[in-house]
Amino acid sequence: MDQKIFIEAQGLYGSTDRLPNVIRVGIRLKNSIDPGILRYAVDRCAERYPYFCVQIEKKDGEWVLAANERPVPVTASREGVRLGSDDAGRHLMAFSYNDCWINFDISHAVTDGIGAYEVVRTLLYYYCSRRNGTELSAEGIRICGDEISPAEWEDPLLGLTDVEARDPAGMGPALCLTEESGIGISDHHWAWDIAIDEKEFMRFNLENDGSPGTMTALFLSRAIERLHPDAGDGLRVLLAVNMRRALRAPLAHQPLVGGAALTYKPVMRGWPLEKQATAYRGMVLVQTREEHVLAEAAGQRAMAGMILSLGTDPERRGVAENAASMTDSIITAGVSYVGRGNFGDAEKYVRDFRLYTNSISRTPLIEISAVNGRFILSFIQPFRDDRYIRSFLEELDDNYISYSLMDAGRVWLPGVELPF
Questions:
Q1: How far apart are the C-alpha atoms of 125 and 106, rounded to whole Å?
Q2: Which residue stretches of the chain have pLDDT < 50?
Q3: Is the alpha carbon torsion for 171, 175, 178, 182 positive or negative?
């Protein structure tokens, strides 16, 4: 079934070589990858998620996501393939493997971390069942043979016509780390991966009125303030918000991510950590009220409609890229936490896990994953300079949070080839 491009417009038209708008999920299993079994598992995912097996085509003068019957690519490489290209069979998702790692790449324009996790759960169910010669429980896993309801297909923003849009431009400019520090932007991203025991971090959060997302955002704010003590009101961290609950669309596969803007106000900086965490939780509470989230969703709907109303693809690209720059100008950094992996019986076969994507433009981003009893904090940024990650680790040290710095290096995100 063809899907007219709508909410996908900003992510697709805003995709560039430096900022491809791609999610990469990396899963390291305990044994080397069997290519034949991986092929089998990927084919099951393609059967279960037909709305991700698409290619971009123009029909009746409009760009659509059309059904793509070609096999979803599975390649033996770390880099993967360029999404949308002939090498990818023009698919906007692909899989690759090297050693014990499986990498799942998908355009962030067609889904978000919530949607990507669903595919990973299905993949691990089929792969680990066959690889280990056992029948794993399918509880909580979307599998072949399920009814694929319209609620998975339909874009909930299309019906959001009677809500007044909230204009994010109302926020003042934020501290820009690259400008403030004179750091040059790289042509790709870098990441430092930090592992923290899940029980210990949750205990710390409970003792200090925090949660994984708000506490990470607070530590990041404090780390930045260490290096920029005169930041004023412009130190603002955006915490990603899943809009599905407010939209009453829990099964929707589209990229439905909003944000709560957490401003590290000067008056807060002398407060104890617990009081700061309480303040951040209060900001999140206010900004995740249904009316607030729906107003932000209406703003995204208005932006998508405005992009698609333009007459040429170059005009659409220009507006989408400007919109990303505008969002970037009102935040200092970002934090995203999809939630626990909940990979079911297959989780015992998972040795390591990563979730990467690119920043909006120039801002650092921390992606939080929770798998197999650990939080993995991937500190992602479009420059190699490590002053902010070092300051963040000092915050962990000062608060007696034990961690392991697992990896540091380049983020491998495939590009996206588009017909426009």
A1: 19
A2: none
A3: positive
